[in-house]
Amino acid sequence: MIYLTLFLTFLKIGAFTFGGGYAMLPLIQSEVAAHGWMSEAELVNFVAVSESTPGPFAVNISTYVGAEIAGIPGAVCATVGVVLPSFIIILIVARCFDRFKNSRTVSGCMSGLRPAVVALIGAAAVSVGQTVFLPWSGLAPFAVSAGIFGLSLILIFEKIHPIAVILASAVLGIAFGFAGIY
Amino acid sequence: MYIKTLLQLFLTFLKIGGFTFGGGYAMIPLIQREIVEKKGWITQDDILDIFAIAESTPGPIAINSATFVGQRVAGFAGAVAATLGVALPSFVIISVIAFALRQFQNIRAVRWAFCGIRAGVLALIVKALFSMYNQCAKSALSYVIMAGAFAAAAFTKINVIFVIIACGVLGLMNSVAAERRNRK
Lengths: 182, 184
Fold this sequence. Notes:
By secondary structure, chain A is an all-alpha fold. Chain A has 8 helices and no strands. Chain B has helices at about 1-20, 25-40, 45-55, 60-105, 110-135, 140-155, 160-184.
């Protein structure tokens, strides 16, 4: 039953997401790979699509994977799944707002989870790096990818908007494609 | 009156969901402007607490904040209205795009564009890595967890969920131990 699988998989992803979108990537990658739903490169392509469209990454990615696997009903199941844990947990927490706010248990857990989020984003960088640098057999496409990465890094640290960076790297990709390098 | 509040909640979060690029953290200033400054539904102090809690509970920050604000303003129905509002624009836009991507993905130029884009995405992730690292406490425990969790998530087949649980438990054990030491 694909709808139930989508729902349960994204329920799991929603329940164990901490921090922002990129920290979700390793978990999504392992789930998507375990089910054979999508290639690593397709997932990374979608990260760019998600950056360039409004809305939270979690909703975007669950809608996308759901729609790819089982159409609109699949998208509904995956998105409801990713949202539901948050929704229930927040409703419970909202009832004991003050106790939660000052809880030493929560702040203790967070002192371990914050560095974990850094580690997960690092792991995401490694696997995305593999899709950027490893598929090539020759030196030229490797060097071009490294160049686009380096330029993007400079732009993003110069506080250029992420969508502009994505557009620039797309234009460069197409240009080098027509030049016969990709 | 109640129905009107629900509708306003839905529409406000629809606007927030439909006009913020870059996910949860990018939404925080917009939520603040709409909910605290324009509507006056929640005080400035409370919204900061809500964001702090949205960050320290599981689930996407955008959904957590929307559910929390909705619940605060109009109870359970408010939570439903706000959460639905924040998720709906994404859902509609991505459903359309998923269809279009499938049509275009095999075009040569699109394939090349994505070769470049993946290198750009890597840069965005590296930037996020730097900012999260800068926000993180620089303690011995932090570095141990960062190194261990990174090695486990990047180079082993250990389930990421176990890695996350283990890091939370380690943090908790460390703070309990520190408390004991302080009491002595």
